[in-house]
Write a structure and sequence with these properties.
Largest sheet of chain B: 4 strands, mixed
Distance between the termini of chain B: 54 Å
GO biological process, one term (chain B): nucleotide catabolic process
Largest interface: A-B, 110 and 76 residues
Distance between the termini of chain A: 20 Å
Order of helices and strands of chain B: HEHEEHEEEHEHEEEEHEHE
Number of helices of chain A: 8
InterPro entries (chain B): 5'-Nucleotdase_C (IPR008334), 5'-Nucleotdase_C_sf (IPR036907), 5_nucleotidase/apyrase (IPR006179)
GO molecular function, one term (chain B): hydrolase activity
Radius of gyration of chain B: 25 Å
Protein name (chain B): 2',3'-cyclic-nucleotide 2'-phosphodiesterase (5'-nucleotidase family)
CATH class of one domain in chain B: Alpha Beta
Helix content of chain A: 10-25%
CATH architecture of one domain in chain B: Alpha-Beta Complex
Number of strands of chain A: 14
CATH superfamily of one domain in chain B: 5'-Nucleotidase, C-terminal domain
Mean pLDDT of chain B: 90
Radius of gyration of chain A: 19 Å
Oligomer: heterodimer
Keywords (chain B): Signal
CATH superfamily of chain A: Metallo-dependent phosphatases
Strand content of chain A: 15-25%
Shape of chain B: globular
Largest sheet of chain A: 6 strands, mixed
Structural class of chain A: alpha/beta
């Protein structure tokens, strides 16, 4: 099989960038190009961290994030903004207002979709449903079954976004709640195997929905010493998933990681720490164009 | 947008696979160029943009309500409190405050020790300087109640072994526990644990109800305090005599994997 490098090196030496790269300063590109921005585990960190001499003092803050996102949107045509869960819990804003402000601000920032983290149940499943009333973006989960719960009509397995002809299929996967979240908080939510549901959903997005790019918003965690299912485990067992935007383990990856899937094709995994300290960005192009990129497809056709 | 029932989905996908082939990207294989932005203090807020000012306006009434409560100074932190395993001064400080509170809340019971699950401490550090109510909310955002759990010595041993296998949890000074490989030894108030004796552990209800894989505590008798851990930490941190300077000498929890 032809091997290709899905993931290019980071734009500037793999290092961290303080300010957005003015990529669009050059001539207007004509090839299809998509910009994915993402956060995870932002944990109600609305204000920057307090000026207390701690490691994260004065860092983060939702207005800075919004300003950066706005700037990128001015430079790029096809921006998608995602969050991988644990929006709630971590500052008094959550204790006092139960996530109402977080949902309003994510709506104002123009989030396109998010998935559910374990802490998003902290106010109870009814509260999550109530607060989603302040959100105009979809909550995605393909492996939590909310039948008979207040979330049953508010959570979808996936969404397909069409960005100037680029079809992007996005779905969510959540962590096992038993032993992690008190049962009284998640109620009748049923957890299903993320690998099985992830592969089913990705196949559906690839074949039925004809997606060019398939993105998983995961709150499974980056990886574990045990056999517990994680983004790395999911990627290795997956087919049809191109990108996993992860969360839960608060992992600061300075560079996304690639893991070969069940067919030997690379899957990108990224995670950007927690508390809105970082914003991740992936610029996706389709350099091979047309059908040429469809390696060995003909062999599979009947 | 609604996914069909999984079995019927699997069947329909199998058919789709045969009919359509596996590769339906019309654009070809994607390539990704990553970038990373640090949301640092060097990054400005675009106060000229209406979308940003409207977010400020959204936050403002919520922030005003919180400020009055959160900016109260409880004490002065002299030595930074750092979270770590197997033992840390942040963990020791927290667990000792919970033990103090448990002595006051449950005077008729003899406390074995107080424990806090490691993952329940939600900051890595509390820096030196004035300790604000908001920092305790950051440390302990969860609405967990402090409860007393009644266990046998054998249960206590199983629970402490679990915390050691999990890398070591914050415990009050009453407990000393050591794990060498799979060999675990422990004392409560300097005495060996008697498997048949009854002990009382002060813990978050989250742990007492089996959270953080503490299944061995499920179903044990619980004595409720009616007080949230966070509120107790605020109350007892506020009673600190002089600046807070807590050590961690590694005498409470020792772990070696040989």
């Amino acid at each position: 099989m032809k091997r290709r490098s899905f993931l290019q090196q980071a734009a500037v030496g793999g290092g961290l960038m303080l300010l957005p790269d003015l990529l669009s300063a050059g001539p207007r590109r004509t090839e299809p190009r998509l910009t994915i921005l993402h956060t995870n585990d932002w944990h109600s960190q609305i204000d920057p961290f307090p000026d207390d001499g701690g490691r994260n003092a004065n860092q983060g803050g939702v207005l800075r994030r919004a300003s950066l996102i706005r700037q990128i949107r001015q430079q790029e045509n096809n921006v998608l903004l995602f969050d991988s869960g644990d929006i709630f819990q971590g500052t008094p804003y959550f204790n006092f207002f139960l996530g109402e402000l977080e949902m309003k601000l994510m709506t104002q920032m123009g989030y396109d979709a998010a998935t559910i983290g374990n802490h998003d149940f902290d106010g109870g499943i009814e509260n999550l449903a109530t607060q989603l009333g302040h959100a105009d973006f979809p909550m995605l989960s393909a492996n939590y079954d909310f039948t008979g719960t207040p979330l049953q009509d508010r959570v979808e397995p996936y969404r397909v976004f069409d960005k100037q002809g680029i079809r992007v299929g996005v779905f969510g996967l959540g962590i096992e709640l038993k032993g992690l979240v008190p049962a009284a908080l998640y109620g009748k939510t049923t957890y299903h195997d993320p690998v099985e549901r992830g592969n089913q959903t990705a196949l559906h997005l690839r074949t039925r929905q004809k997606c060019d790019l398939i993105v998983c918003l995961s709150h499974l965690g980056y990886r574990y010493r045990s056999e517990k299912v994680s983004d790395v485990v999911l990627a290795a067992a997956s087919r049809n998933i191109d990108v996993i935007l992860g969360g839960h383990t608060h992992t600061f990856l300075d560079q996304p990681v690639t893991v070969d899937n069940a067919e030997g094709k690379p899957v990108i995994i990224n995670q950007v720490g927690f508390a809105g300290l970082r914003l991740g960005r992936l610029d996706i192009t389709f350099p091979e164009g047309g059908e040429r990129g469809c390696v060995a497809c003909n062999n599979l056709r009947v | 947008m609604i996914l069909p029932h999984p079995r019927s989905l699997a069947a329909s996908l199998a058919v789709a696979f045969l009919l359509l082939g596996s590769c339906n990207r019309h654009l070809g294989e994607p390539a990704a160029a990553p970038q990373l932005y640090e949301i640092s203090s060097a990054m400005g807020v675009d106060t000229a943009a209406p979308s940003i000012t409207s977010m400020e306006a959204t936050i403002q009434p919520y922030a005003t309500k919180l400020e009055a409560v959160m900016n109260r100074v409880l004490a002065e932190v002299e030595t930074p409190l750092l979270k770590g395993q197997p033992e840390s001064n942040l963990g020791n400080w927290t667990a000792d405050l919970l033990a103090l509170a448990a002595h006051d809340l449950f005077p008729e019971y003899e406390l074995a020790f107080a424990v806090q699950n490691y993952g329940g401490l939600r900051v890595s550090e509390i820096g030196a300087g004035p300790l604000l109510v908001s920092e305790i909310y950051g440390l302990m955002p969860f609405d967990n109640e402090l409860v007393l759990v009644e266990v046998t010595g054998a249960d206590l041993r199983a629970f402490v072994t679990h915390t050691l296998l999990d890398g070591g949890w914050p415990v009050s000074a009453n407990l000393r526990a050591e794990r060498q490989g799979t060999e675990v030894t422990m004392t409560v108030d300097g005495k060996p644990v008697d498997d048949t004796q009854t002990y009382y552990i002060a813990a978050p209800d989250y742990v007492a109800n089996g959270g953080s894989d503490s299944a061995m505590l499920v179903g044990k008798r619980q004595i409720s305090s009616g007080k949230m851990i966070r509120d107790l930490l605020i109350e007892y941190a506020g009673k600190s005599q002089g600046p807070i300077s807590v050590g961690s000498d590694g005498q409470r929890i020792k772990i070696s994997n040989q």
